[in-house]
Amino acid sequence: MIGEGTQEQTAKEGTSTYVNRDLSWIEFNRRVLEEAQDRDTPLLERVKFLAIVSSNLDEFMSVRVAGVKDQMKAGYTKKDFTGYTPAGLFKRIMKRTGRMVAEQYKTYRDICRQLVKEGIVFSEYDDLNANQKKAMDAYYHDIVFPVLTPMAVDQSRPFPLVRSQSVYLAVVLEQEGEPEEDEPYFAIVQVPSNLSRVVAAPMRANSKKQEFVLMEELIKRHIRTLFSGYKAVAVHAFRLTRNADLTLNEEGAEDLLEEIEKELRRRRWGSPVRLEVEADIHPYALSRLQDEFEIADNVFYIDGPVDLTYFMKLASVIEGYDRLRYPAIDPAYPEEFGDADDFFEVLRQKDVLVYHPYESFEAVSDFIDQAADDPQVLAIKMTLYRVSGNSPLIRALARAAESGKQVTVVVELKARFDEERNIAWARQLEQAGCHVVYGLVGLKTHAKITLVVRQEQDELRRYVHVGTGNYNDSTAKLYTDVGLFTCHQVIGEDAPCCLTK
């Protein structure tokens, strides 16, 4: 990898007794990699952990490393309290992440060997039999080819926008009939992100093996269909990571939502931070990419498929291999609410502590549903940081507002990489009549809390749910979190502090 630095250079850095947070994060991600390496971990779970290593590293590069590079560009040379200058820290980060990526792909090859033993095979196109090739050719021509857009790059056609963290093919071309000593032509092709990265081949006769071909390999094999009159000298995958850290002037912004929307549009054009290329990429293609992206100090040469995040979906869609996964968790509905028709009646008797994912998140959804439909409920106040794409909680809150209840929702617009989704939820809630608060200036609201105010005889009673996990019914099936349901007076009186500006 380019730009590792010498031992003499790095020895002068990081002499503090404190641990740098970015280097500490790398050790955290290494711990995730160790889960992928552990032979005691079920094989398809190891596949998932390998994908998580990649997705973690994507965010680290696009935010944390991007920030370090910004400091370097600004000429900032002061050491932080851990003893690192931005340049020194960048060199150390590159050295450690380079080792991690090399180890990750070594683990990838080991896992693939284990998958073959289980009948799950990643095949090259040339290794397929005639019937399989025929099916792959038909899939390419019927489904893939119409979606592809080859983009030539020359003096009359500027370099097209390369989207962050999308896989592309760099194609070096020669025009048929021209002398080979002339400068080659160059083009790029985006691997469609809206089609599956892995294509299942038909099973061979008398075989139980499931064979898959990577989408980019299929496109490489048929690259001639995209460039009539030219010969492809080399075709290699690459992937660019851009700076995705939002630069917000919250104090000067008249409308925080509009300001974030502007920054999200700028994110597409964020400065290049990392370039991943296949290890044997053609030198001409590499030079064109480096010149265009002005990146020389953060290039990763990948000995395998570029971007392993596709492994996550693969592990989920393969059927019939439950023995290669962790035993499925069937969440129990909290016993305290199991036979009760009224959450409020239960909570007047005692507090209820739930433990996800072993206890079902449906209890939270049902609590909000009951509050939305109960005529005695006057107000619902809630914080939302990350919610699922089809959240039942959003529908319940909208229904409550439409029925005349006072509904206040703190939507954190600065939830990293969920900004667009949260903006959409905020607008939907406002259209339903909810009062939406867009977090606090200069801070992120990570609190997970719901307050329900209910009229009961001659008094108002506050019911609260507070938890450690997001109000996300999808991730609540995966992450371990606790949640407390209570109508304790002190907690109820304190809860509004988390729900107002």
Protein described:
With 501 residues, the protein is an alpha+beta fold. The chain is built from 15 helices and 16 strands. A hairpin with a 2-residue loop joins β14 and β15. The radius of gyration is 27 Å and the shape is globular. The N terminus is likely disordered.
What are the main properties of this structure?
501 residues; alpha+beta; Methane Monooxygenase Hydroxylase, Chain G, domain 1; polyphosphate kinase like; Endonuclease, Chain A; 7-stranded mixed beta sheet; 6-stranded mixed beta sheet; globular; disordered N terminus
Structural class: alpha+beta
What would CATH call the homologous superfamily of the largest domain?
Answer: Polyphosphate kinase middle domain
Give the CA-based shape: globular
Please name the CATH architecture of the largest domain: 2-Layer Sandwich
CATH topology of the largest domain: polyphosphate kinase like
Count structural domains: 3
